[in-house]
Each structure stands twice: as structure tokens, then as C-alpha cells.
Predict the structure.
Amino acid sequence: MDLHSEFILEEYREARPLFEKMQSEVNRVLREALERNGLIVTAVETRIKTEESLAGKLALKGSKYATLSDITDILGARIITFYTDDVDRIAAMAEQLFEIDWANSVDKRKLHQLDSFGYNSLHYICRLPGYDYRFELQLRTTLQHAWAAINHDNGYKSGVEIPHEYMRRINRLAGLLEIADDEFSHIRTEINDYRRRVQQLVQNGQLDDVQLDGDAFRSYLNARPFDKLNRRIAAINQAEIQEVPLIRYLKVLKALGCNTLGDVARLRNQYEEDAYALARHQLGNTDLDIISSAVGLQNICIVCILSQGGGKIGLLRLFNALNGQNSQNEELAEITFKQASNLPFMNK
């Protein structure tokens, strides 16, 4: 190493505490910005180049740098995302947070080299407000990061001493991973579009056009379709309503023959009054002052099962589906059947 490189290395030793302060600040700023923008990522990593690593770099090309400030990767930060389109979102975020050195930044995704998949990172050279030294910010996906790590570990990228047949297989695999990376983003976009369509259909009351699935049922529940019945039931004993998740009733409703949200709405309308009558019979002689927000929907399911001749066996299946199989479900089915036995819907 020449004398000029030794001077740069000494400058690095003196500036090391400043780089440590920068590292802490960059890490904080990035994490807070990601949380503020609702962006979920695989990892946020920062590192300071070791003295040994810098010495090796200077030994190879020390004459390229006039001072330490010309070396832009002493501090490095990396954000690893789940999806390719999140790279652009985070890049836009970074442009608001830091001063970007556009002349030295590079979007390697645009190079389109045959073996470049794992190296398709977006590299920004950034400066924190109030600091003289720059740092490098890399943005890449999880699959790109994994592939780059495998390449680095096995020396695939150089191709040295690797027979052509193996390099061809390696590049084919990289192509498959790149397709997978793009497909994950496309699928997420299509799922989000589907959810928006479902929400719009629910808001417009076009329930027969919405197939009953997890996303559709959640959108339906957001409209709180069972609240009116729950409030009527709570009024029997002036009880408080305790909120519980209703998504577990999805499989029950499907088992009862509901294929669309329209079917669920018709089931509610058809059995709502009988469900309320059952609740009066259940609560009338008790001092229960807290009820579950599932009581309305559960009673609708109970009335539906009994009205269709499901009997105690049908109730047992219901409680097994909701609570998991246990010995108490059989007793609960017996009690519920007795409570309902004298109600008018049982004799229709």
C-alpha cells in the first residue's frame, strides 16, 4: 500500500466514530420512515467497512480516491423487500429522506445482463443532512438477496473453472427466480385489485356477485350485518356486548350451503327472528350481563340447522367446527336442543 493510501486509512481511523454515529442515524431514519409509510420489509441492514476491507480496496485502487470522502461505501445500508415493486416505493421514500448523488448512483435492474438477477439491486449514493460523508443504500428483493448470497458463496458469477453445462443450469435457475420475483408482485397486485372489487360490490349491495371466501366475508363483516340482532339480544338482560372475531364462522356458513354473500344475507334475513326468539329463551331466566358479539350469527346457524332437521347431531357438528372437538360440545348440543325444542320454528 502506498503512502497516499496510508493517509486515507488514517483518515478512516479518525472518522470511525462519525461513521458509527451516521450508522445509528441512518438505521433510525430508515426504520421510522418504513413504519410511517406502512412498508413491511424482510430486513434493514447497516454496516461499516472494516479497516481490513478498506485496506484491501486501497491496495487495489487507492489512486482512484483523493480523500476518504471519495469512497462512498464506507457506510453501507441495505433494505431487503418482499416484492419488486416495493423497491421503487422505498426508493421514492429514500429520495425524500436523503440527498441523492445521482451521478454515482446506479439502477442495476436496467442493465439486463444475462447473469445479473442476484445483482439487480438499486444502488443509491446518499448523504444525510448535516454530514459530509456519503453512504451507499442498496435496495433488493429477498430472492435477489438470496441468489446474490449463493453466488458470492460459490463463486458462480465469475464463471471461473465452472464448466459451461453448469453455468447454463445456473443461469436458467436465475431466470426462474426472476420470473418468480415478478409473479409474486403481479399476484399481490391482482389480489389487492380483487379485494377492492369485493369491497365495492359489498358497498353497492351486489352481494350475489361476490363468492363467499375469506376476503369477501371480512368485507361483509366490516359492514357489521349482525349488530342489530346482537343489540336486540343484549337488551333482553341489558347486557354488554363483547367483541370477538367472526371469521371462524366462514366454514360453518359454507357447510350450510352458502356460496355467495347474497346467500349469507338471505340466511340472516330468513332466520333472524327465530334466532332472537331462541336468545330470549336462552337468556330470559339468567342474569348474564355480558354476551359475545357472535351470539346473533351463532343462533342463526343453530336455527338453520334445526329448521332443516339437523337435530342434535347437526348442533354437535356446529360446536365441533367452532370450538374444536371436545367432550363439552355434546353437552352443549343437548342443552341447546332442549332450549329450542318448544319454539315455533321447530314445529314448522
Q: What stands out?
A: The first strand starts at residue 43 and ends at 48.
